[in-house]
Each structure stands twice: as C-alpha cells, then as structure tokens.
Amino acid sequence: MVRVPIRVIYGDTDQMSVVYYGNYLRYFEAARNEFIRSKGLRYRDFEAEHRLLLPVAEAHVSYRTPARYDDLLTVEIALGEARRASARFDYRIVREEDGAVVATGHTLHACVDLDGKVRRLPAVLLAALSAGEPAGSASGA
User: Fold this and answer.
1) Tens digits of per-residue pLDDT, 38-60?
2) Exposed, middle or buried: residue 71 (CB in 10 Å: 0-12, 13-18, 19+)?
3) Is residue 14 among the annotated active site residues?
4) Catalytic pick from 14, 45, 70, 113?
5) Sign of CA dihedral 63, 64, 68, 72
6) Is the Cβ–Cβ distance between 104 and 92 less than 8 Å?
7) Which CATH number applies to 2-130: 2.60.40.290, 3.40.50.1240, 3.10.129.10, 1.20.1250.20?
8) Is residue 88 left, alpha or beta, with left meaning phi > 0 and alpha meaning psi from -120 to 50?
C-alpha cells in the first residue's frame, strides 16, 4: 500500500464548500500515479516502451463523510487484483485531522494497445505492480 497526501484546494469544492464528488476520481488518479512511481515506473515510460494504455473500464466511489477546503487528506492505494489484461486498484481516503474515512473505492483498468484491442499486461509491469503487495493481488487469471 502507498499513502499519498492531498490538500483540498478551494477549486476542488462546490458551492456548499464540500469537495465536488467528481474530484475524488482525480484524487484516485493522483494516488495511482504515485503508486506506479513508487514501484520504480513512470506511466508515460510504460506507454512509450510497450505501446500500451491502461484506460479506466470501471470506477466506483463510496462517499462516507464530506471533505472540505483545506482538509489534509491521505489517499491509501493498493493493488486489489492483477489479471492477464486488467488491474484493479483499491482506494481509501482518510482526513488526517480526525482520522475519518472520507471515501473508499476502486478503479478497474483494461490493458489495450494503441488501436484499443485488449492485450496482456507485460510481465515486467505485473511484477513491478505486485512488488510488496499482499499475496494474491496478482492472480494472473
């Protein structure tokens, strides 16, 4: 698991001073980028070297309690599962001030080539993403 701090900026909030619901997916994306970087990879290098993309095929967010302007949040991200041609990342967002769970969720990513055809995740990527993660997260099924 990787933990990524995010400070809520004014532009992330709506008229009620609450983080706009769609911004939680941006927080997930920021954490996913840092997760991949923590594994010694850069997503842009993966795209260039393998000529593959990892588009979001599914996204789910459960909103627990509102986050507001200037809250310091921590996005916890872990590899939920890696299969032959997809990977699922699991997220939990916690407000640092009081430890409240603000949101949980996941994103599922397909592995596709530049023409949009489903392809296998390269073994090097599977190995890197799974390094240090709980056993079973890279099932290969």
Assistant:
1) 999 888 888 999 999 999 999 99
2) buried
3) yes
4) 14
5) negative
6) yes
7) 3.10.129.10
8) beta
At 33, give phi and psi (nearest 5°): -60, -45
User: Where do the structural domains in the chain lie, given as residue ranges?
Assistant: 2-130
Give the span between the Cα atoms of 131 and 113, in whole angstroms: 24
Q: What is the pTM of this model?
A: 0.91
**Residues of the chain with pLDDT > 70: what percent?**
95
Beta bridge partners of 73: 6, 95
CA distance 126 to 138: 7
> Residue 73: enclosing H or E segment and its boundaries?
strand 72-82
- Counts for the chain of helices (H) and strands (E), in that order: 3, 7
Closest by CA position to 33, among listed 20, 48, 45: 45
Rounded CA-CA distance 129/140 in Å is: 12
